[in-house]
Design brief:
Layout lengths: L2 E7 L3 E8 L4 E10 L6 H14 L6 E5 L3 E2 L2 E2 L14 H9 L3 E5 H12 L8 E7 L3 E7 L2 E3 L16 H4 L1 H7 L3 H19 L3 E5 L6 H4 L8 E4 L6 H14 L3
Parallel strand pairs: 1-4, 4-7, 8-11, 11-12
Antiparallel strand pairs: 1-2, 2-3, 5-6, 8-9, 9-10
Bound molecules: beta-D-glucopyranose.
The site of beta-D-glucopyranose has 16 residues, from helix 3.
């Protein structure tokens, strides 16, 4: 069995688990520490190292990171400290935890996990996964191939603000609206994405995926809409799968 440590760095928590990258299943318990506020490079590296240290593990560590990540470097910082912009996530986290770290965008990681082991398995058309949490993350696949760093949560929506400012779970909590009222907004967002990309399937992930049954009735795009099967563990699982691939030079 190939066990790899996957860590999902989120705006509110840093969560890790050992993942069997053959089956995509978690092995043993998850460990979570709250994301330090502000989530500066230094503070977040300490939290990352704390999660790694919890596991009796030696080997490559996969990291889903909540920003644009190109060649290990962060290029945005919507829900983390702006000090991350231009910083190398992989070398900073590697230094902090003493193991090689492979970092990719968190929603791309969740998408890879769903395509490989979950709701997107065998899907050959155009698939869009949206993670709904503090921000809105996206992963876009065509014939199983990822187009990385799509950032569809940052489409400008109203008042020159990004869609995530209105359609994330954090936005729902800020506006103190019901899940039904939020779902109507979110449905507009899905229709907008459908006008742009004509997907065959939407997969909804992130913390909000576990309440899918409460709002599915409000979602009316032509494309199928399904919840992520790996629920909120998709980011951890995809991060581990990404590290396994990168460490083997695939
Ligand atoms: C970030 C994305 C991230 C998403 C979910 C957004 O604010 O820009 O990179 O995937 O939040 O964490």
């Amino acid at each position: 069995m190939d066990l790899i440590l996957g860590i999902d760095v989120g705006a509110s928590g840093v969560k890790g688990a050992l993942v069997d990258v053959q089956s995509g299943r978690l092995q043993g318990e998850r460990y979570r520490v709250p994301t330090p506020q502000p989530a500066t490079p230094q503070a977040l590296s300490a939290a990352f190292a704390e999660v790694v240290a919890f596991f009796d593990y030696r080997g490559p560590v996969g990291c889903g990171f909540p920003a644009i990540v190109k060649d290990g470097v962060a290029h945005s910082a919507a829900n983390i400290d702006a000090g991350w912009i231009g910083d190398n996530v992989e070398s900073r986290f590697s230094q902090a935890c003493g193991a090689p770290v492979y970092a990719t965008n968190d929603a791309d990681a969740a998408g890879m996990a769903e395509m490989r082991y979950g709701a997107g398995r065998g899907e050959q058309g155009l698939v869009i996964l949206i993670t709904i949490g503090t921000g809105l993350g996206s992963a876009l696949f065509y014939r199983g191939m990822l187009v990385p760093n799509t950032e569809l949560g940052h489409l400008l929506w109203k008042k020159n603000k990004p869609a995530e400012a209105f359609c994330s779970s954090a936005a729902r909590e800020r506006a103190k609206i019901s899940r039904a009222a939020w779902a109507k907004r979110f449905n507009d967002y899905l229709h907008h994405l459908e006008r742009l990309f004509s997907p065959d399937l939407f997969i909804l992930g992130g913390g909000e995926s576990k309440y899918f049954d409460q709002y599915a009735q409000y979602l009316t795009p032509r494309a199928r809409v399904v919840p992520a099967q790996l629920l909120n563990n998709a980011g951890i699982i995809g991060a581990a799968a990404y590290a396994a691939e990168q460490a083997n030079g695939l």
